[in-house]
Design a protein that fits this description.
The chain is mostly helical. It contains 14 helices and two strands, in the order αααααβααααβααααα.
């Protein structure tokens, strides 16, 4: 039943671009993009229980790495995407080592991730080779080999593919020993270590995998908007955009980030479109705050677990 429903939903998504206008395509592209990033965050923040509020650092590292390699040596972003992911994973391992080796948990680890993202922003802001405060601007050529497309439906399908890729990775992890160990660490790290789980090792693996996927998303972001500014790709608002999807949808669940993105991304894009002027920039963050209050008060585990319970009750004899 569940697989049939998922297959039907995928079939609808595959043919949907032929019935959407440019604005509708844009909304779905961002739905898929933030579902992908939310799924990547979910590995660390949801399954491992290590809350990060600085995941924008990995987006920025991935974006700047692939864009600069394309500009400097002509490396196609199709390959640069993986190079950017590796660079983000290395940064993630550095952050993880500092945090996990020194026993940072909870709010302390959150502050560390925020500080790393801010350090990345400040460093990029002062490097002329990366465009400094003006950032990097990518020249549009329409060359698919350079991740540039005349038809926005290409971004739609790539975004859908990325979302499915991250979901597949998380599904495989969830069924593996790593998923079981991360769940144990999230529930009670001390108890998990007492029964032989190497919490440092598995948290580092979760950090590396989460950062790698997020860094890959940086390339998609760079070639979607064709410009990179330090404040945009390393800033707190992007980190909030990433983590709020799984939190609202249900962190630590496979479908939570996807549901959260389908709820929040259209609202955010509509808010940016209709309230971007008149001193109302950032109104989407206000919407996030209000929704987060609702979720905390009425759906503390997220929207997806709530829907699961309701559907289970409805199908019960």
């Amino acid at each position: 039943m569940g697989r049939g429903l998922a297959g039907a939903a995928l079939g609808v998504l595959l043919i949907l671009p032929f019935f959407l206008g440019s604005y509708g395509l844009t909304i779905f592209i961002f739905v898929f993009f933030y579902a992908f990033l939310g799924q990547a965050w979910n590995i660390l923040g949801g399954y491992a229980g290590q809350l990060s509020a600085g995941h924008a650092a990995f987006v920025g590292v991935g974006a700047y790495t692939s864009a600069k390699l394309a500009m400097a040596v002509g490396l196609t972003p199709w390959i640069g995407m993986f190079v950017g992911g590796l660079a983000a994973a290395l940064l993630g391992l550095g952050v993880g080592y500092l945090g996990f080796r020194f026993g940072l948990r909870g709010f302390s680890f959150v502050l560390l991730t925020v500080a790393v993202a801010e350090i990345c922003r400040l460093i990029t802001l002062h490097i002329e080779a990366l465009g400094a405060a003006l950032g990097l601007f990518i020249t549009f050529t329409g060359n698919p080999w350079m991740f540039q497309f005349q038809d926005s439906r290409a971004h739609y399908y790539i975004g859908l593919g990325l979302m499915l890729l991250a979901t597949g990775v998380v599904a495989a992890m969830e069924r593996s020993r790593m998923g079981s160990y991360l769940a144990a660490i999230r529930q009670d790290e001390d108890a998990a270590e007492a029964v032989g789980v190497n919490s440092f090792r598995y948290k580092m693996l979760a950090m590396a995998l989460s950062a790698f996927l997020t860094g890959m998303g940086g390339t998609f972001y760079a070639y979607l908007i064709f410009s990179l500014q330090p404040a945009a790709v390393f800033g707190i608002p992007l980190s909030v955009d990433i983590l709020i999807r799984p939190v609202v949808g249900g962190s630590g669940t496979l479908m939570g980030p996807i549901l959260g993105s389908f709820i929040l991304s259209p609202l955010a894009e509509l808010a940016r479109t209709y309230f971007s002027g008149g001193g109302m920039v950032g109104i989407h963050l206000v919407i996030y705050g209000l929704l987060l209050i609702v979720v905390v008060l009425f759906f503390p585990q997220g929207a997806y677990p709530y829907l699961q319970r309701r559907l289970a009750r409805g199908s019960a004899p």
